[in-house]
Amino acid sequence: MFFPGHYMYIEASAPRRKGDTAQLITPSYSSATGACLKFWYSMKGTQMGTLDIIQSPSSGAATSIFTKTGNQGLTWQLAEIVVPPSANYTLTFEATVGGFSSDIAIDDVSVNTGICTRPGIILWWKNIKHDDRIIAELALLKILTFLQTNKHN
């Protein structure tokens, strides 16, 4: 499922106070093989709070599958998270205000069955020189090719 066209955020200025939360809860999903949650997030601010993603099965305990706290920089960041297999679960995006300067936003949220295109690997390009970036991209391509070739072994 993909939610295009709009981003969601929590406004941290008044009347919000430190510790206030906003939640976005997805429709119910079910996957025997797991899923890939992909989204972009922005967390820039000197008093940044926390963004949590919580998987809540219809039976059993809820589990945090992603947490970011503090200033994450000026640019939007991509997150790809492997969601463990579960029958009938929801995902909750929970943003907690850290202070006046701590707006948290998410965009382009998608949930797809199967593994993420970059299994468990998130590459951050910030502060990486061009030549190193090319080497990292080639290494990632080799890893993905290896995984694809050996997925039946």
Descriptive overview:
With 153 residues, the chain is mainly beta. It contains one helix and nine strands, in the order βββββββββα. The protein has one helix at 130-149; strands spanning 8-10, 21-25, 29-31, 35-42, 50-57, 63-69, 77-83, 86-96, 104-113. The strands form two sheets. Strands 2, 3, 5, 6 and 8 form a five-stranded antiparallel β-sheet that branches. The chain has a four-stranded antiparallel β-sheet with strand order 1-9-4-7, with no helix packed on it. The longest helix has 20 residues, at 130-149. The radius of gyration is 17 Å and the shape is globular. Mean pLDDT is 79; it is low at 119-133.
Itemize the secondary structure elements and their pairings.
Layout: E1 8-10, E2 21-25, E3 29-31, E4 35-42, E5 50-57, E6 63-69, E7 77-83, E8 86-96, E9 104-113, H1 130-149
Antiparallel strand pairs: 1-9, 2-8, 3-8, 4-7, 4-9, 5-6, 5-8
Strand content: 35-45%
Report the major sheet: 5 strands, antiparallel
Number of strands: 9
Globally, the shape reads globular
Poorly predicted tracts of residues: 119-133
The count of helical stretches stands at: 1
Rounded to the nearest angstrom, the radius of gyration is 17 Å
The sequence of SSEs as H and E is EEEEEEEEEH
Q: Class by helix and strand content?
A: mainly beta
Helix content: 10-25%
| Span of the ends, CA to CA | 30 Å
The overall pLDDT, averaged over residues, is: 79
